[in-house]
Amino acid sequence: MIRKTARMNGRHDRIVDFIGAKGEASVQELANEFNVSLMTVRRDLMLLEQAGRVTRTHGGAILSRPGVVAFSFLERGERCAAEKQAIAGVIAAMIKPGSTVALDSGTTTLEVAKAMAGIEGATVLTSSLAIAAELYTREGLETVLLGGAARKGSPDLTGWLTEENLKRFHVDFAVVGADGVTREGAYTTAVDLARICQSVLASGTTSILAVDHSKIGRPSFSRFAELNAFDHIVTDTAVPAASRRWLKAAAKNVIYAKVK
Q1: Architecture, CATH, for domain 10-74
Q2: pLDDT(226) > 90
Q3: Order of strands across the sheet with 254-257?
């Protein structure tokens, strides 16, 4: 079956955000929220369903499975967005034209990819489908997408194939994010992600941890590296003084990016 391409508008994005925040929304709720007729809402939901973003229900709609994944990833990206952009700017300034860079999956490394747009001749190696999509049309940048299994609930690749492929490469800069950082090390939410992070780090001459202040001082499920394994830890100026003290003691170099 060939899916028709639906013409989207700004209201459609807001409808998806509204449904994502509530879990489900009725046609009447949407009509009230966006001050449009019931007929307009039904037409909007039909177009959004054709685009694969929602699934219509009796009297309303929920996010489709791809829509849930996209909404979750975008929602994570919006947390501490200004801080992530500042961190990305600092890291991009370290990368010279012609450099090779490995980026793991995550919303902070996605911002690093965006910040690299003007670096002529750089090559980016990544397991992130979101990063590959972001860089696909960028002139002057080459993107190498690692193979692997698509991870459920997130737009990235993982598994033994990704790990084996990473062993074939050496890069100038290896940049990873984290879901938690304590004085014992950097953590992520799953064992398979921890192995990918370790493989990314092993591929690089210079290793960088990109992590905003909200992750500092709390662990996550799986530790993938001690803090002294990174040449640079780039975070933001909202890190509290107490955390700065143990970061200074445990890490080689900590850089605090200032939000503009």
Answers
A1: Orthogonal Bundle (1.10)
A2: yes
A3: 142-145, 123-126, 100-103, 171-176, 204-210, 232-236, 254-257
